[in-house]
Amino acid sequence: MSTVVPRPDAAPSWCAGPYADALRTGRGPLFLRRPDGWLLPLDVERWCAAPDPADLSALRRCAGPVLDIGCGPGRLVAALAALGRRTLGIDVSEAAVRHTLELGGTALRRSVFETLPGEGRWGTALLMDGNIGIGGDPAALLARVAELLAPRGLLIAETAPVDIDERVRVHLDDGRGRADPDEVFPWARIGTPALLGYARAAGWQVADQWSADGRSFVALRRRDPREGAAGRAARGVPDPHRAHPAQHPAARQPRPVPASRPDRDTDHVRTAHHSADPANSAAVTSSHRVRNTPAGRVVDRS
Ligand SMILES: C[S@@+](CC[C@H](N)C(=O)[O-])C[C@H]1O[C@@H](n2cnc3c(N)ncnc32)[C@H](O)[C@@H]1O
Question: Which sequence ranges form a coiled-coil region, renumbered to this chain (predicted)?
C-alpha cells in the first residue's frame, strides 16, 4: 500500500529549463538558489561521468533489486545494470530519464511520492548526490522509502559532508540569470548525525556509515514490520510507535533565521516547509518490471 503525497504546488522545477540543458550538454554551471541569493553548486559533470570510486563504494553495498531514486542522468543505474543487477531509476526529469535510457539503464519518469512498481519489494534504495533532500522533509522521505523497501531492505543515502539539518526553498539557476524564481520547490540538506537521528526515531537500523573522496554515506536497514518489540529492544532500536521524532535533537523544530544571511553554503538556514516535491508521471521506458502502453501507462508486472 502506498502513500501518494498530494502535489502541494505544480512547479516544474527539475523537469525542464536549466537542469534539462545541463544534462543535454553534460556541463554546469548549475545551482540550487535560495531567494536570498544563497547558492549550492550542483555537480553536473560528475553526474554525467562514469561512477567514481565514492559511487562504487555505495554500489558495492547494494543488495537485491535496486531502486535509484532521483537517478539523474543514470550513471549508477547503468553501472548496476552492467553488473547484472536488476535496477530501476526513477526521476521526475524527462531529460534525466532519457539520458539513463541512452546509457542502457531502465528508468521511469515518476516521483518517489507517486505509486511505483515493486513497492515493498526493493532490496536497496539509493538516495545519492544529496537526494535525501527531495521533498524538503527527510522524515517524510524516509517513511516513503520504508514503504518501497522489502522487509530488512537497505537504504543507502549520501549525506552532506557537514553536520547540518536544514530545510530550504530553492530554484534551479544556471548562474547566467536563466532561472525562474517562481519555480521554487522545497529541498533539504542533512548531514549524517541528523539523518541518523531521523532514522533511529523511525525505527531504522544503522547498517553502515562511511566516507569516500570527501563524500559521506549512510546505509540504513528497514525494520521488518513482522519483528516484535523484543527484537528491537535487543538491538537498542527504539519502538517507532513510542519514539517521537521531536525527542531527537536532529528532529527538533527548525530554527528560523533571517533571510538576509550571507551567501554561504554552510549556512544552517532552516525553514518549516514540509511539502513534497511534485512531479509528472509519464512512463518513458520499458523493462520486465515496467512497460509503456500506447497511452503511456505503466504496468507493474513484477
Ligand atoms: C541532486 S540531483 C541528483 C542527480 C543524480 N543522483 C545523478 O546521479 O545524477 C536530484 C535528482 O532528483 C530528481 N528528483 C527531484 N525530485 C524528485 C522526486 N520527487 N522524485 C524523483 N526524482 C526527483 C531530479 O530531477 C534530479 O535528477
Answer: none
